[in-house]
């Protein structure tokens, strides 16, 4: 259990004693699209030696890493270069990666992903699916090598298909454990399939999976139960974004909905729940996001803090917080509001981030244009950093060719 006033280098135990961490710096899940295209299965990717090197560099003794999001089926997939957790070939490809992290004493969870409506049939090989047939309308779907096109209207999953999708998560969790991961994290944040069930503007269902807070949370809670049945509660984490707006989610009744969700999750004995801080957004700066939480109608009544959700979970579920943490604020709220801190972008640019945070050494700034592959030179901005610049919090450094707003 946490000591009275822990700092980020105080040890912590997860999963009812099953997992001992020597510090509280967690590598956040980071999609980097550096996988290798499978020659066996169309539209699938596998992990490779470059990825092994990348994760191994970031592993520390008693430190926790969460993998990039890994699709649980072809239907769940939505990006080139992302190795999944649904074929035997993928399972085998992850083994050297998990072994390398383990050899350094690291703890490694696999994030399990279903993009729902945020994909295209050219990538799933069939239709795209969601809670309801509501497409994303304010953007186009495109990727390196794919021409941007308007999002397709998704097929609304039938009840049988909902259950089959939940089973895909349970199967993928079992495969992840077989591949050597210590546990799995369900990606129930950032506007992907779980969130498409959570949000009132995307979930228009009138069956047991829509129409009320309880029903909108049902898909997530049932999936959590199935994944727990497959691998055990102490090996399961869940990622949530009660303040998320990414991928056009604009649900109402958020505080009530995520509080109810956390009250239920708190009964399950999970390894942890992982929240994204309200101040963080994929497309807005911290100032813009906070201004939007003030002014934006569906969110206006919210307490802008993770505190209600921590309270709803109760004291026995560990909490990870992520979003705009750095060397200066990494101890803020530790022990009280959350137990562990996940770093995303700084782990892209600092393979030795844990040591830099420990010694107070300056952090290398991240190069957004190299976040997401695939590239012909996949190692650049991944394991090789030819043009590094240090970064002071708040300072904006623009790299030549920087294309994404992230
Ligand atoms: C390149 C990149 C890829 C990301 N991929 C994922 C992902 O696969 N799954 C996920 O839950 N979040 C993903 N995120 C969000 C991060 O996990 C994290 O929540 C976010 O970057 C905020 O943390 P930071 O301020 O420390 O970067 C990604 C972020 C970045 C920058």
From TrEMBL:
GO molecular function: FMN binding; oxidoreductase activity, acting on the CH-CH group of donors, NAD or NADP as acceptor
InterPro entries: Aldolase_TIM (IPR013785), OxRdtase_FMN_N (IPR001155), Oye-like (IPR045247)
Cellular component GO terms, alphabetical: cytosol
A Pfam family of this chain: Oxidored_FMN
Domain NADH:flavin oxidoreductase/NADH oxidase N-terminal: 7-362
Cofactor: FMN
Keywords: Oxidoreductase
Entries under Gene3D superfamilies matching the protein: Aldolase class I
Family according to the record: Belongs to the NADH:flavin oxidoreductase/NADH oxidase family.
The protein, known as: NADH:flavin oxidoreductase/NADH oxidase N-terminal domain-containing protein
Lineage of the organism: Eukaryota, Fungi, Dikarya, Basidiomycota, Pucciniomycotina
């Amino acid at each position: 259990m946490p000591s009275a006033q822990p700092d980020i280098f105080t040890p912590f135990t997860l999963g009812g004693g099953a997992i001992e961490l020597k510090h509280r710096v967690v590598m956040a899940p980071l999609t980097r699209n550096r996988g290798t295209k499978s020659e066996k299965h169309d539209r699938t990717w596998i992990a490779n030696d470059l990825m092994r090197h990348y994760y191994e560099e970031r592993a520390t003794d008693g430190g926790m890493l969460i993998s990039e999001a890994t699709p649980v089926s072809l239907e769940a997939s939505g990006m080139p270069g992302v190795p999944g957790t649904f074929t035997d070939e993928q399972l085998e490809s992850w083994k050297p990666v998990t072994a390398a992290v383990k050899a350094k004493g690291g703890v490694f969870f696999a994030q399990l992903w279903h993009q729902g409506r945020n994909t295209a049939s050219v990538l799933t090989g069939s239709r795209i699916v969601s809670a309801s047939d509501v497409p994303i309308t304010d953007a186009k779907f495109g990727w390196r090598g794919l021409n941007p096109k308007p999002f397709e209207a998704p097929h609304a999953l039938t009840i049988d298909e909902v259950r089959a999708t939940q089973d895909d998560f349970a199967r993928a969790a079992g495969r992840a454990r077989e591949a050597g991961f210590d546990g799995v994290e369900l990606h129930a944040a950032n506007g992907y399939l779980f969130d498409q069930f959570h949000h009132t503007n995307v979930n228009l269902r009138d069956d047991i999976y829509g129409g009320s807070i309880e029903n909108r949370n049902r898909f997530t809670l049932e999936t959590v139960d199935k994944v727990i049945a497959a691998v055990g509660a102490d090996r399961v984490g869940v990622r949530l974004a009660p303040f998320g707006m990414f991928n056009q989610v604009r649900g109402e009744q958020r505080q009530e909905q995520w509080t109810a969700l956390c009250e239920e999750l708190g009964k399950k004995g999970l390894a942890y729940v992982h929240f994204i801080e309200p101040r963080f957004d994929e497309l807005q700066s911290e100032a813009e996001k906070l201004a939007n939480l003030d002014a934006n109608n569906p969110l206006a009544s919210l307490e802008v803090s993770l505190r209600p959700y921590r309270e709803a979970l109760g004291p026995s579920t560990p909490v990870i917080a992520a979003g705009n943490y750095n060397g200066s604020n990494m101890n803020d709220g530790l022990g009280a509001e959350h137990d562990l801190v996940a770093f995303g972008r700084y782990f892209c640019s600092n393979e030795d981030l844990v040591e830099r945070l420990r010694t107070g050494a300056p952090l290398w700034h991240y190069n957004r244009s190299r976040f997401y592959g695939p590239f012909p030179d996949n190692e650049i901005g991944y394991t090789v950093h030819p043009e590094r610049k240090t970064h002071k919090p708040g300072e904006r450094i623009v790299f030549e060719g920087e294309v994404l707003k992230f």
